[in-house]
Amino acid sequence: MAVCIAVIAKENYPLYIRSVPTQNELKFHYTVHTSLDVVEEKISAVGKAMADQRELYLGLLYPTEDYKVYGYVTNSKMFRKLHNSFTDVMCNPFYNPGDTIQSKAFDGMVSAMMVQAS
Amino acid sequence: MMSPTQWDLPPELCCRPMAFVALTGLDVTYNAIHRAIWDAFCANRRADRVPISFKVLPGDHEYPKCRTKRTSYEWYIPKGILKTGWMNKHLNLVPALVVLFYELDWDDPVWKEKQSECATKVEIVRTSLQGRNTKVAVVLIQKKTPLPPGEDLVASERAASLCNACDLSGKSLFVLPHTDHLVGYIIRLENAFYEHAQTYYYTEIRRVKSHKEFLNKTTHQLLFVRHQFKIAFFSELKQDTQNALKYYRTAYSLVHELRTHETNMLEIKTMAGFTNYKICRLCFQHNTPLDAIAQFRKHIDLCKKKIGSAELAFEHTAWMSKQFQSFGDLFDEAIKLGLTAIQTQNPGFYYQQAAYYAQERKQQAAHMCAHEPVGSYPTPDPLETLSGALDFYGQRAWRQGHQSIDPPDAEKEKVGIQALQVKEKDVPHSELIIALLSNAVAQFKKYKCPRMKSHLMVQMGEEYYHAKDYTKALKLLDYVMCDYRTERWWSLLTSILGTALRCSYLMAHVKDYITYSMELIGRASTLWEDQKSRIEKNLIKVLMNEVPEAEPDCDPASAKAAQALWSDRVSLAGSNRFTIEVQDYVPFVQCKARFLSPSFHLDDPVQLHLYLKADCPHPVRFSKLCVSLSNQEYNQFCVVEESCKSQDILEPLSQENMCLVPGKTRKYSFKFVAKTEDVGKKIEITAVDLMLGTDNGRCVLLNWRGGGGDAASSHEAIQAARSFRSRGRVPEQHAQWDTVSIQASTMIISRVPKISVQLSHKPPALSNEMYCICVSIQSNEKTVAKDVKLTAGLKPGQDANLTQSTQVTLNGLEVCDESHPALLPDIAIGDLQPGEKVEKSLYVCCVTTGPRIFLFHVAYTMTTQAEGTDITCKCHKDETVTIETVVPFDVAMKFVSTKFEHLERVYVDVPFLLMTDILSASPWPLHLVSSQLLLAPTMVALDEPQSQVEHVVLQTGECASECFSLQCPPVLNGTSSVASGQYLISWKRKSSCADAPVVTTVVTLSHVMVETIPLYVHAELPSFGRVRESLPVRYHIQNRTGLVQDVEMSVEPSDAFMFSGLKQVRLRILPGAEHEMLYNFYPLMAGYQNLPLLNISLLRFPTVSGQLLRRFLPSRIFVKPQGRQAEDASIAAA
């Protein structure tokens, strides 16, 4: 189960970020932010090689001592669910792409994917 | 450099083990030869020399005593894993080989004595190495160069005798002649030493291995680890790194098989750490970095939870930190030797983790050493040992050798822990953390991880903050803040700003304090409303020149010191004005300025709106707002100022003009009249300044460069533009903040002219004609238009060739020439009263065809009023027109014979006709005034040529033709191409007035081929015949050559004629002479009848056919029928 889920805009700012409330939220924010280094590097490497065949799976981004950070992974249902929910958000005519996500449905989906705080 | 701490790995572990060889018998201080030998051994050792560490020792040096060999391990209980002195002992104290240097030549006169002295010295060395397997070798230093082996019989005999005396094998006796080739000899010597050393270490390994059979698994667990470690270490000394790695790996797994309890945890971890270090080091050395990483991960996973005593938990984190740090060092070392690291696997991560554990250690230390009653350092010192050092690695000083599971002496334990805790208090934790973080920063910088780098720098800044070095903290935080701001990670920015605010508060840095507060209460801050409210209240206090409340989470003592600093600041006068450039921050007041239009006419006032919005929790009152423009003269019109009292700042009235209510947009309008000299220039907003506070308190000037906006506004503008909300209707007065866009510059453009310029003309223009364009200018101004000037002609900036081929004049009576310009500038018209109209005719002569753009520019000045002031405006109006130029007519010409047959070529002295056709291409009727033929000297007219088209008017598509009878005089060479001459056509438009100039168009006639013929024939006959009436025909035959010509002539019979005359004749014509033949034809039929064919053949010129000659003759004639009336007439005529 996830401890922190974030959706990042292509300009690298967070559209949505949520972590389990039991732990230091700031630490997770920093972790997500620093893992963007790897995302950026991977995307630019892909861009150079083949622009069309964009591999969405970025895999394990960044090994930390306590957690593993994954970039958009499709090999588990978890990320497919997240993507579907994100698609729903984008389809909302009242949502302006680029704004932070404020959606109850998305919140609920993310909560279901996270470690349940006891 | 920091002094080594107990957690640093011992240097003897970290070095590369090399075989230890002791050299004795060398006097390196006083003996130059010995010195040279020693230098050759140790100075400038390159990497390709064998790995030996040499040491010069005196001949009677005492080597460490060898303990008596244990015969049984049955009752032996080991006291620890590895003795602290063991590695050093084998690296530096116990040699693998002792070499005795001795000066002795083979032919020494006192050989016997010397030999026994040498044997004695060997014996002394042997005695002090009692019990060790250390080898002994002797090197004889000789003055003479030795003979080749086998030749010197004395030498071999004496060598054998010396070996015998010293009890040496022949392989252990060496000769060193000190000649020119010293280094070469030394290298050979040391290679031999190296072999001896390897044999020594090999036997040592065998010796340690042999212990194994005596060990049992219950009591000798520690020895299993010790022996494996020793074997591995000896293998390293032997330079057998593959086996060393194997043994270290075994040792590592054996360490973890040891029974662990709280008392031996540290010892186990220490040995695990050592072994792990060795394994990782060898893996990197073998260029298998992934093995090193895997081993290290395994090591960390195995040891992470082995915390040991809870009261000494900081020791565990200190040890963990060191593990990561030393791995980072190894990794970095390997990279320096050529290994490539990647973004996700580089030493930075290990330093970062080391820093993380150092931070943990600091927290644990603070927790354990501050909250418990640690008290003072106990006496006697429980950490003191008899020798000053520990016997075994990783043991406690107060219970060395304690290996039993029984609980140790509780009182001693307590005192020992207390001593360690007191010591921990003095550790400079922040210093350690910062050093590790900065190591990590350097690595991440190298491996393209800018965000990781920033994150670590934030941590460094925070650590400096904890270490109370606020200046350094602010420097680091300030440096990274803008990265987080540009990436729009507001939560992280807020956290950093919070730390920065505390730093600036504790240092009482007023300007920084204001800057950070400003952003923390602004829209980028993720603080709760109550926190923002508190900060805003503090900010107001600062503006009022009061001391702000301390930030929460500040160390109370520091906060108290800060209060004092702030009080000093309050009493300080003079430095109470602060200008803060807010452009690159996200301040709590947003500003946008816009000119209402991208351009203003000079006679319209320039309008400028300024929008302000506060995002802080409470309303704010400002005292001055001013806009600076690129022309500073306008600044005075763009100011709002209203001084305020302290009361206004504390409790601003929200309806007041100078009060910004949170979330509400306020608009300020400015208006001014632009200066005449600014016409055509841009007016830019250079800055917007908003003054907060008062002059008698503190005064803060928020300064926006350009037309406002800040670090977040451009993104917001993009989002707003995309948003569906912007498409909705918004009432003008509630201008939504997002929909306002910045317009920071405007153009001042000249007043709109109220004047009409009309052109009348009849396009297209005909080439070379004086084309008339009539310009009529009418003033619609209410006042006099002064100094009206017209600039007319070809619009500049077109094809340069057009300038050459276009002429403009105001005089329509003469045809222009090249001296006329293409553009007539500033034709003075004078003043125009309101409603007055002026006309001007412009004549244009276009030499070439094609389109041209003509410009008519009317400029004038006038005086008008704007906002109550008189302004003089320069106005101008441009009209352009594109006029096509076409040719008026096409001229075609051809040469025909007198029979109107087309001629390819003409013949000398034979008349022919020139026909010209003038085909009108003009849409307007053309009046052909006259035409003229100017013949070249190679052609003559047969009669005076007269124009046949004079005063002919041609409509579009009509054609006028002329015909001229010409002849060519003789030419040289028989045949040549000759010029014909020119054809001049004078014309004008039918519609043009009588005195309009006539245009003469010159057409150059084409060349023609002229040929000389040898014989010319022409006939003389009446224009018609009549049936049954005699028709006399006279043929003239001219010989045009210089030769006598034989001509054969015959007349063919014809049905239409009877004739009399010579039917067939052969003539001889003299040069230049003409022969005449007369025939009387008698027509038989009426109508056009073919004349009887005359066949002529030239015997001399067979090429000139009768057919060619026949072209000069008429082929037929019209024969009238015989009329009754005419009959009489004919009789009468006859």
Shape verdict of chain A: globular
- Can you count the beta strands of chain B? 46
Question: Could you report the average pLDDT of chain B, rounded to the nearest whole number?
Answer: 87
Major pleated sheet of chain B? 8 strands, mixed
Computed Rg of chain B: 61 Å
Broad structural category of chain A: alpha+beta
The largest pleated sheet of chain A is described as: 2 strands, antiparallel
- Give the fraction of residues assigned to helices of chain A: 40-55%
**Strand count of chain A:** 4
Helix count of chain B?
Answer: 25
Number of helical regions of chain A: 3
- The domain tally of chain B reads 7
Task: Indicate the low-confidence ranges of chain A by residue numbers.
Answer: none
* Uncertain residue ranges of chain B: none
* Largest protein interface, residues of each chain: A-B, 25 and 26 residues
> What's the CATH topology name of the largest domain in chain B?
Rossmann fold
Domain Trafficking protein particle complex subunit (chain B): 264-522
InterPro entries (chain B): TPC11, TRAPPC11_C
Domain Trafficking protein particle complex subunit 11 C-terminal (chain B): 1039-1096
GO cellular component, one term (chain B): Golgi apparatus
What do these coordinates show?
The complex is a heterodimer of chains A (118) and B (1134). By secondary structure, chain A is α+β, with helices and mostly antiparallel strands. In chain A, 42% of the residues lie in helices and 17% in strands. In chain A, β1 (4-8) and β2 (14-19) form a beta hairpin. Chain B has 25 helices and 46 strands. In chain B, α10 (289-303) packs antiparallel against α11. The termini of chain B are far apart. Classes of the chains: A alpha+beta (118), B alpha+beta (1134). The interface between A and B is medium-sized, with 25 and 26 residues.
Task: Outline the secondary-structure elements.
The complex is a heterodimer of chains A (118) and B (1134).
Chain A (H helix, E strand, L loop, with lengths): L3 E5 L5 E6 L5 H25 L9 E5 L4 E4 L5 H15 L12 H10 L5
Antiparallel strand pairs in A: 1-2, 3-4
Helix pairs in contact in A: 2-3
Chain B lengths: L10 H4 L4 E6 L7 H11 L9 E5 L29 H8 L3 E7 L7 H18 L6 E8 L10 H14 L6 E5 L4 H30 L9 H17 L3 H17 L7 H21 L3 H15 L9 H24 L10 H25 L38 H16 L3 H18 L3 H17 L3 H17 L3 H18 L2 H11 L8 H15 L12 H16 L5 E5 L7 E7 L3 E3 L4 E9 L5 E10 L9 E3 L4 H5 L8 E2 L4 E8 L9 E12 L5 E7 L7 H10 L22 E5 L5 E6 L4 E2 L3 E10 L5 E10 L5 H5 L1 E4 L13 E10 L4 E10 L3 E17 L2 E18 L2 E8 L8 E3 L4 E9 L5 E10 L4 E2 L10 E3 L4 E9 L7 E4 L2 E9 L9 E6 L3 E4 L3 E6 L3 E3 L4 E9 L5 E7 L5 E4 L3 E6 L4 E10 L3 E4 L3 E5 L7 H5 L5 E5 L3 H10 L1
